[in-house]
Amino acid sequence: MSLGFQATALVASPSCANAIAWSDENLLAVASGHLVSILNPAKLFGGARGLITVPASKPFHVGLIGKKDLLSSCLLPTCVSRDIRPCVRSISWSPIGFAPNASCLLALCTNEGRVKVYRMPFREFRVEWVEVMDISEMLYDYLKKANFEVSSISSNVSDTTEAGSDPEYTDDVPISQFMKANKKRKQKGLTVVAGAVKEKDSHRVPASEAKHSKAAARNSGLPLIAAEEYASRNAMLSLLTVAWSPYLQSACGGDIPSTDGSTNGCTVLAVGGKSGRLSFWRFRKPQCYYTQSGTDSNSAMLVGFLQAHDTWVTAITWTLQVSDASNPRVLLCTGSSDGSVKIWRACNRELQDSSDISHDSFSLLKEVTVIDYAPVSVLSVIVPLDSPRKTYLAIGKGSGSIDVLVCETPNNTFEKAGSYHGHNHIVTGLAWAFDGRCLYSCSQDNSLCSWIFMENSLRKVPFPSNTPAVKSSSDVPNAFDSCFGLAVSPGNLVLAVVHGYDVELLNPMYEARACKAAVAFRWIGGQHLDTFSDILPDCDFESFPGLSNREMISWENNIMWSLRQCEHLEKAVVVWDVIAALSAFNESDHKYVERVLLKWLAYIFRSQSSISTILSEASRHLPRIASRVLQLLNIITSQVALKKPEADKTISKQRDDAEEEEMMMWMQLRSNVEKELRERLVGFSLSVISSLVSNSNENNGHKEFGCWTPIGSAQMEKWVDLNRANVNEHLKLLAEKVGRTKKRKLRSICEYKTEEECNFCSASVPLDSPENAFCRGEKTDAGTGPSHKLLRCAVSMRVCLPTPSWHCVCCKRSASQLVPLALFTLPEYPSDFESFVGRCAHEKPVKPLCPFCGILLQRLQPEFLLSPSPV
């Protein structure tokens, strides 16, 4: 198997299926032994990594059993268990926006049955990720209160409290001290503490077994239970797999505050275990995001249980059904060790609002017939955007086979698309790509397969070649013998695969000691999909080595598809793989990149002219373009079109002049796009201020609770006045209307400040540019002091405070204030901002997004710490 275009080594070997996961913010989590490595695929070489070290956990106290029950068959799995070191067996990323800095949370499950949730250390300045909560501890607290009664936990969970440890059970004695204390007391019977079995006194006479067993129970504070009861309790706490649901929100698409001040938007973490039961934990989005001080406000609520299977739950996956916009539903797919797969459906609103979710909340839609009884290892499900009434489910099994199921809504009819034997060993990874047109699979036998899904059937196809090459790694040997999972990038152009090494093929002097496992990255942007037939005429790509015309055309179509997917507002803007591919092509074939950009510009501006004509006429069409498309255009322009490759010495002077002219046109396009976005931002902010002024007159000056109040209105008025010759007439009138408002009233509504002072001296700071500022220098007896350079907030144009603020890794701007989502949903430049604002005037920002790039803002981190790179 080829290495791919880049690879990176891991310090521990993976040991579970689905050992890799790609987050919505472009971070990779890889489970390898007792470690979880978090990687930035854009900075693998010399870049920073995140790390989660899973410690050995204190066992749970579930009860005592007598010596006579030691040889019970139900205790055999407990007695033969020999897990010496904790190992991660399942990982899952939450949707974006649930960490305190609006990033993703990471949930992991260990072989000890522990489930924990972690976040990025964005304010701690360390490599080790921060533990947010221990789900297994919370589950144990609840089960102990319910006395492990199945009848109680299967239907009634209304008294579940928010996340947090119960102080009644926080002072458990370490297992070593517990055993020593029992040994000193010479108690009779067996002490069972979360799987630890120890015989206390084998020389006692059998007649007194019951007496001493009861005494041991009284002294330890644990109940004396039967072997079957212990096995049942142990299975309840033996967790195996985790999976986050998609982002669940109201039918209208917004986050509406509830009575307790929280928003309806949430995600649900499903946890499956050996008992066949699933527990569901609801996580609310934080009410606000921050870059520095503050406590983790994330809370999880146990909202229900579901007895999904009779044996171990080995795989879980979620997806949304978007066919019914008025009543959106979520699908839950579960797989078991007996080979059964079940598909459940629940209403989004019940998962968001209810505090008492019983078994009836999930209705069983389909149970897949078991044929070979091979355990289910992985599941992958997708609802194609092009066919929202269909759901594709891929099932990977321990036998190496792959089953595909197609569900049609709203009739909920199921059709089996077939069973395919692509591997000789357990399937360890499955991932849909290109909106369900392609499926990728891998196995522990080191096989990696690519499938095309057409007409409800899979067809095995070869992988595309791995060019273009962005980077290469010579210190990662190609001596793999297994695959433990795969993941597809957010843009679907890159495939990441976790490999284990064949130690027999490694050099025993140094490779066998240093090389434990590796993550290999393969280009899949050249994957040929028969559904794409829009081939450009007269294509000739012979200048790019190693790729056929068919692959180049596939690259072009897939890049176009990826860019179009980013136009959907529910998707995070992550175009790292698109930019990486175009940048690599640009080094060898600039004309090919120009052809791709021409096709994209023609799609945006609805024009079939040449690229120079489109660029020269683009400024007239920008007001009719959606804000998200303008942000994508700004990113591609700055990161691709204006990144000129090394000049070819054989190019003539005339060719250089033509390229220089085209480069100037791209620069002008970027300037016009940013000006258009700036006008929309200023117009939106001033309209909100005007609406607040009107509401204050009607409400006697009282501001409505939860209202977003923009700052910097004085700076915005000044900016409009400085650019009167180039801004929209409606924006001029709006600025004049706000300017006529009494300053005292403005100060009572928002922070109004006409004169700004330097953060380092008392000198004044004029508004010369919306990006940067220079103070006039402090005047002293010795003259005028030095002038300090300051950053301005990209949203308010106010001078940023010296405290850490939000940072855009694409346009390098800073922001101390956030903008509501309504600004990003503008389909065009509004003819009347005040009529558009309406209810949006009272909408709080839901995510820290850059108004010029649309990507997630983050705290600026030093180079030695991990940070996402969506571009």
The strand line-up of the biggest sheet is 1-31-30-29
* Helix proportion: 10-25%
Distance between the termini: 29 Å
| Global structural class | alpha+beta
- Please state the overall shape, judged from the principal axes of the Cα atoms: globular
Number of DSSP strand runs: 40
Output the number of helix runs: 18
The proportion of strand residues reads: 15-25%
- How would you state the average pLDDT, rounded? 82
Radius of gyration: 30 Å
**Unreliably modeled segments:** 154-207, 256-261, 532-538, 700-705
Largest sheet: 4 strands, antiparallel
Could you explain how this protein is built, in words?
This protein is α+β, with helices and mostly antiparallel strands. The chain has a domain at 674-859. Helices cover 25% and strands 25% of the residues. It has 18 helices and 40 strands. The chain has a four-stranded antiparallel beta sheet with strand order 1-31-30-29, with no helix packed on it. The chain has a four-stranded antiparallel beta sheet with strand order 2-3-4-5, with no helix packed on it. α11 runs parallel beside α12 (611-621), α12 (611-621) packs parallel to α14 (653-698) and α14 (653-698) packs parallel to α16. The longest helix has 46 residues, at 653-698. The radius of gyration is 30 Å and the shape is globular. The two termini are 29 Å apart.
Chart the SSEs and their pairings.
Elements: E1 6-10, E2 20-22, E3 28-32, E4 35-39, E5 50-53, E6 63-65, H1 76-80, E7 88-93, E8 106-110, E9 115-119, E10 130-134, H2 135-145, H3 150-153, H4 175-185, E11 190-193, E12 196-199, H5 209-220, H6 227-237, E13 239-244, E14 266-273, E15 277-284, E16 300-307, E17 313-321, E18 329-336, E19 341-347, H7 348-353, E20 363-368, E21 376-382, E22 390-397, E23 401-408, E24 413-421, E25 427-433, E26 438-443, E27 448-454, E28 457-461, E29 480-488, E30 494-501, H8 511-514, E31 517-523, H9 549-565, H10 576-588, H11 590-605, H12 611-621, H13 627-641, H14 653-698, H15 713-722, H16 729-739, H17 743-749, E32 756-757, E33 764-765, E34 772-774, E35 779-780, E36 783-784, E37 789-791, E38 806-807, E39 814-815, H18 833-837, E40 858-859
Antiparallel strand pairs: 1-31, 2-3, 3-4, 4-5, 6-11, 7-8, 8-9, 9-10, 11-12, 13-14, 14-15, 15-16, 17-18, 18-19, 19-20, 21-22, 22-23, 23-24, 25-26, 26-27, 27-28, 29-30, 30-31, 32-33, 34-37, 35-36, 38-39, 38-40
Helix pairs in contact: 10-11, 11-12, 12-14, 13-14, 14-16, 15-16
